[in-house]
Amino acid sequence: MGGIAAGPATVSLPMTTRALGEIGQGESLPDHLPKSPIPLFRAWFDDAHRRRWQPNPNAMTLATIDPDGRPSARVVLCKHLHDDLGCLVFFTNYNGRKGRALQANPRAAAVFHWDDVDRQIRVEGPVTVSPPAESDDYFHSRRWESRLGAWASDQSEPIASREALLNKVRHTAKQLGIDLAAAVSGQPIEIDRPPHWGGFRLWFESVELWCNGVGRIHDRARWTRTLTKSGDTYSGGPWSATRLQP
Ligand SMILES: Cc1cc2nc3c(=O)[nH]c(=O)nc-3n(C[C@H](O)[C@H](O)[C@H](O)COP(=O)(O)O)c2cc1C
Question: Does any ligand 1 atom lie closer than 6 A to the CB of residue 153?
Fold first, then answer.
């Protein structure tokens, strides 16, 4: 007979709550899982910002699949959580490694980890390019240095040295007609969004909420749904929720 062998019949260890002691204690998800994970996602996201124990509470690890099928992961910032649409938004260079990966395989997985409150959220789903207005609005809210950097950097491409990179930034400033002395002194600087830079929307097809429990008896639940594409957006069918073993 395969599987795990049963212990001696004489040994009985009733797993009452008392016998479990502290095991499993800690934060837990509601007994009756809510229909949608998005209100809890929003509450945890806002909570992480309120506490601000982590300098970047909106940081998430984003995994993509390269055109040759290899996975790659890096940290990006989640700049919008669109509860109503059911997606989140991050901004990046469309021609960098992740940008090219997402053009070849427009699906991604992301994970937030808030260490101070022992919570993790995992998201998976298809990815679309943000509408231009969403990218423009965010781009124009950035400091001029970041806007210049978006023009100057060919993200993920090699460069000979740090000095060569700084020269490239100076050269780009000149090309864009930016007076660096005026910029540094705080004068407003107009820089349009480069066409190779903008947002991606990651649509919620699967969302998992995780909270830490004593003895590694964590509480996990995953919500999944079917998404239907219409133009550049997705709409979701009803969620199906499942509690998972840790
Ligand atoms: C805290 C943190 C936040 C970051 N935020 C972003 C971001 O929002 N967008 C971005 O393109 N890169 C961001 N980066 C840099 C990426 O991790 C990565 O180095 C860069 O995007 C290039 O990745 P790629 O070569 O896989 O495209 C961030 C890095 C850290 C550590």
Answer: no
56 lines ligand 1 (CB under 6 A): yes
Answer whether 96 contacts ligand 1 (Cβ < 6 A): yes
Buried b (16+ CB within 10 A) or exposed e, 216-242: ebbbbbbbbbebeeeeeebebeebebe
pLDDT tens digit sequence for 156-178: 999 999 999 999 999 999 999 99
The residue among 193, 73, 192, 69 whose CA lies nearest residue 130 is 193
pTM of the model: 0.91
Asked if residue 77 has its Cβ within 6 Å of ligand 1, the reply is yes
What class does CATH assign to 26-143+195-244? mainly beta
Tokens in use for 59? 């940081």
The tokens of 168 are what? 């490239």
Number of H helices, E strands in the chain: 7, 11
- Among 59, 40, 7, residue whose Cα is nearest residue 239: 40
**Assigned token pair, 5:** 């062998």
Pick 15 or 125 by higher pLDDT.
125
For residues 204 and 213, what is the distance between their CA atoms, to the nearest angstrom? 26
Query: Hey, which of 60, 64, 70, 77 would you mutate to test ligand 1's pocket, going by the most ligand atoms within 8 Å of its Cβ?
Result: 77
* Separation between Cα atoms, residue 220 and residue 40, nearest integer Å: 13
